[in-house]
Amino acid sequence: MKTKVLTLDAQQPDPAMIEEAAAALREGKLVAFPTETVYGLGAHALNEAAVQKIFDAKERPSTDPLIVHIAHVGQVGQLAASFPAAARKLALSFWAGPLTLILPKKPSIPDLVTAGLPNVALRAPSHRVARALVETAGIPIAAPSANRFSRPSPTTAAHVKADLDGRVDLILDGGPTDIGVESTIVDFSVDPPVLRRPGGITFEQIHSLVPGVVLASGEANAAEPQLAPGQLTRHYAPTADLTLYEGDAARIVDRIGADVRTAVARGSRVGILAPEEDLSALAPVIASTAAVGRVEVRPLGSRRDVERAARELFSGLRDLDASGVDVIFAVSPGSEGLALAIRDRLARAAEGRVRSS
Ligand code: TXA
Ligand code: MG
Fold first, then answer.
1. pLDDT by residue (tens digit) across 272-298?
2. How many CB atoms lie within 10 A of CB 90?
3. How many whole angstroms from 248 Cα to the centroid of ligand 1?
4. Residues with Cβ < 8 Å from 112, sequence gap 6 or more?
5. pLDDT, tens only, 340-354
6. Does 156 sit in the ligand 1 pocket, CB within 6 Å?
7. Is residue 121 lining ligand 1, measured as CB closer than 6 Å?
8. How deeply is 4 buried, as exposed, middle or buried, from its count of CB atoms within 10 A (0-12, 13-18, 19+)?
9. Model pTM score
């Protein structure tokens, strides 16, 4: 299959291009498109053969359910068997936006979409291209992140192409995504509701409207197996072994400095993904004679700008991987607000290699 790429304006998407993509989706084809979080790989959610193509293209196990994208809250009734008041409240506050709600499903949704679960994950994206696409297509669109299974999620069309060229019919290139980490998932199929994946809407924002919400146990801890489907530990993973450092900033810098020296002495090439301030503090180690040419660094925002860290996270991981480093040392930006989502993705990529100080 030849993959076509259409480049469009994220603010004012060309209606002719949107119509072409919408028609492809209605015909059962695969279309990758930008959302405010990451790029999605879309297919007609009510067409089982089309949905199967998503799993094939991504090499995704069929045990991992898909998020269904809709245009607005009014469509929930067509897809969900019930819509609890607390879930409605969140939808009215945070849609269109980076929030996914898990609700009991209606029978019209193929089991393939939900991995056989009795619930469906729904989200109304705010990105203008995504919104125009769901509105114009007039169908619900099943769309996981548009990466090969277990690769970091794509935040640019180039990332999508790197993973899925020749496997999708069309890629809509709307430039880099705004948020950079996936949507927050809140599960209303259980009582009390559970935050299954931290994301673009913070736990604090959810909690202020739904005080009963609980964090899934171990959601940010890659050392524990994930009970929720799809919340596999090995996720968002670069090829290089990643170690996550968290805790006191000065101590993190000391430990990474020591670990860089050890790794370089062993002959390894090292990637560092850390806030700018930490990279500055590590500059003498990186510039040392032994380390020259053996250390690649990528900024993870700044300690004062977690939004930027979220935007830089997945491209930083992809860049470091592409540079061929053997190990990656990554710094957790903390666990409040959006930092919790970043920490969660890094902890999963670390597969239990977490060093706390
Ligand atoms: O921001 C996002 O949510 C992006 C964009 C493209 O919308 N999508 C995304 O999809 O991150 P994906 O497939 O990478 O993650 C979907 C996850 C699944 O791995 C699973 O954990 C959860 O959503 N999920 C989906 N349907 C579910 C269900 N019925 N029950 C429980 N969890 C579900
Ligand atoms: Mg994904």
1. 999 999 999 999 999 998 888 999 999
2. 23
3. 32
4. 48, 51, 52, 55, 62
5. 999 999 999 999 999
6. no
7. yes
8. middle
9. 0.95
How many residues are listed for the chain in this entry?
357
Residue 21 identity: A
Tell me whether residue 270 is exposed, middle or buried, using C-beta atoms within 10 angstroms of its C-beta: 0 to 12, 13 to 18, 19 or more. Answer: buried
Most ligand 1 atoms within 8 A of CB, residue of 60, 68, 100, 172 to mutate: 100
Look at strands 141-142 and 67-69 and give their pairing: antiparallel
- The Å distance, Cα 271 to ligand 1 centre, comes to 29
Helix, strand or coil, per DSSP, at residue 129: helix
Is the C-beta atom of 120 inside 6 A of ligand 1?
Answer: yes
- Closest listed ligand to the CA of 314: 2
Euclidean distance between the first and the last CA atom of the chain, given in angstroms as a whole number: 50
Instruction: Please check whether residue 261 is in contact with residue 285, taking contact to mean a CB–CB distance below 8 angstroms.
Output: yes
Mean predicted lDDT score pLDDT of the chain = 94
Cα–ligand 2 centroid distance for 229 (angstroms) = 12
Q: What is the pLDDT of residue 335?
A: 93
Asked whether the predicted pLDDT for residue 250 surpasses 50, the reply is yes
pLDDT by residue (tens digit) across 27-81? 999 999 999 999 999 999 999 999 999 999 999 999 999 999 999 999 999 999 9
Residue 232 has pLDDT above 70, yes or no: no
The torsion defined by the Cα of 236, 239, 243 and 249, in degrees rounded to 10, comes to -70
